[in-house]
Amino acid sequence: MPDSSSIAILVQRLNTYNKAYRAGNPLVSDAEYDNLVETLRRLDPDNPFLHQVEPEVFSNKQEIRHPVPMLSTDKAYTIAELQRFVDRVYKEAAPLEPQHITFRVTPKLDGLAGRDDGHILASRGNGWTGFDITSALDKGVEVVGQRGLGLGELVISLSYFQEHLADKFEHPRNLVVGIVSSDTVNTLALQALEDKAVRFVPYATLPQWTGNGDELVKAIETIKQDLREKVDYPMDGLVVEVVEQEIRDAMGATNHHYRWQIAVKDKGETARTRVRKILWQVGRTGKVTPVMLVEPVPLSGATIKRVTAHNAGFLKKRRIGKGAIIEIIRSGEVIPKLEAVITEAKTMDIPHTCPVCSTPLVEDNDFLICPNAQCPAQIRQAIEHWFNILGTADWYGTKTVEKLVDNGVHTLEQVYALTQQDFIRMGFGPVQSRNLHQALTISRTKPVEDWRFLAAFGIPDLGKGDSRKLLEHHPIDTITRITAGDILAINGFGAITSQSISRGIQRIRSTIEHMLALGFNLQHTPLASEMAQMDSPIKDKGIVFTGKMVHGTRQDMQNMARTMGARVQSAVSKATDYLVCGEKVGATKKAQAEKLGTKIISEQEFLDLITS
């Protein structure tokens, strides 16, 4: 009989991993989680954890009882396990003497499961009761097909995620959960919603394969490849189910899953390596996060040298440090991540002081925070952020900004007061000093959108999308007088975020006013009140620009379209009305536009349209 304390620890780990997964921040891979579940099944087959749907909770949302339970799925990782499922179906269906036993296979989407009855979109919850997440549709989640098609999955277009978000989010599901659970969405998620890349996909709309049991087992790999090519969503396997209702009724369900259905999952390619060092990085907001530097190892065609470690709590819980041997995995199209810890580190080296400024760190749940606003790393990243987002000045890369900070330049006010001689005194060469000084002048005189100017200050919870939204209601020259109540009154901003943005603006009020006084050449965002009265041929039209433009840059064209009320998008979707093509256009966007029936026009045709 296994030790009860070890079982309790295993259940606690499973609960922790499940909670993190449901919150959009998975700590382990699906395969490792499933292995732990099977371990618990061997040790304690009657454990209550095994006989329930792993719960998900969305606070401050109304609970909804499902008319039919939304259960989990049993899993098969090998052909042998799939064969056992098929054999069980035939055995239990035999007394019914069915004329046919048909298996249906559909893609298993890796998102957030839900049920849409046409009025309410509800999450799965604990299988019997879920939560009303209809607000996700109000935020811009697109429904594929039509409302009311029942069970489905909230997901993001895989091609869109890989092109725009793969370096910002570890997994597409993280973004989706954030949209559902947050009062307001961050800039990246907002853009994805505007581009109609986040969707509720009813299972009934997915491509499918049907056949008998023998055909299924023999062709499962071909079926998997064929279905993967037909959907542009993250997949973590296939769903195999019996079609005939009488057989479903006879097989029934456990408290955890329907016995007539199984998920066929792929463990993905894995590799083992040793942790050489934990690198601690200080972010712009003071978060101190770890990165595992590992011995280089080939994985799915790439050489892996760095693996994300999330936060200090992640390292503590997994006992990861120098010398630890870990297994990493790349499953499907997802970027490599930790699969398992093979050998724990003998010692843990979690910093107690900031690795840059030596200020004592503050613990915030699993995170470490450097509270020193004058920390050189935070200052450097804030200045870098300014130039990266503003986008109108060259030469201010990481090394240059580091040198400025090392020479006591810690604010934007100080940066823009520098002369050519100041740069020379800091050790820059004569030519570079001239270029750096000229770049500051160019950044002030070259036209730039006011929302980009505002977003460049790095105010918490105020990225590019929300900056544009804010300036649609309040002009840039009044922004330092805005209150939390003013922000909350704008659709899409929540109470917590409004307070955060208001505090952030007031904290750097003098800097914003100083930079405005320098006379930046700002292109002002049209006010919503003005837009409502505008008569424009492209008002509310979704437009994507691609290729090299002749009559100005692509950004010029985008700005022009926005000022005329268009919804400028970065990827072609069902919500795109026009694909505007310049020179040297790639085939991908045009093929997608042709597939969706989007109107394709040239740059000149676009100009003719807006001047008609």
From TrEMBL:
Its cofactor is Mg(2+); Mn(2+). CDD domains: BRCT_DNA_ligase_like (cd17748). Residues 533-612 form the BRCT domain. NAD(+) binds at residues 30-34, 72-73, 124, 153, 265. GO terms for molecular function: DNA ligase (NAD+) activity; metal ion binding. InterPro entries: BRCT_dom, BRCT_dom_sf, DNA_ligase, DNA_ligase_CS, DNAligase_adenylation, DNAligase_N, NA-bd_OB-fold, NAD_DNA_ligase_OB. Keywords: DNA damage, DNA repair, DNA replication, Ligase, Magnesium, Manganese, Metal-binding, NAD, Zinc. It catalyses: NAD(+) + (deoxyribonucleotide)n-3'-hydroxyl + 5'-phospho-(deoxyribonucleotide)m = (deoxyribonucleotide)n+m + AMP + beta-nicotinamide D-nucleotide. Transmembrane segments: none annotated. One of its GO terms (biological process) is DNA repair. Zn(2+) binds at residues 354, 357, 370, 375. Its EC number is 6.5.1.2. It is an enzyme of class 6 (ligase). The active site is at residue 108. Pfam families: BRCT, DNA_ligase_aden, OB_DNA_ligase. Belongs to the NAD-dependent DNA ligase family. LigA subfamily. DNA ligase that catalyzes the formation of phosphodiester linkages between 5'-phosphoryl and 3'-hydroxyl groups in double-stranded DNA using NAD as a coenzyme and as the energy source for the reaction. It is essential for DNA replication and repair of damaged DNA. This is DNA ligase. It comes from Desulfoplanes formicivorans.
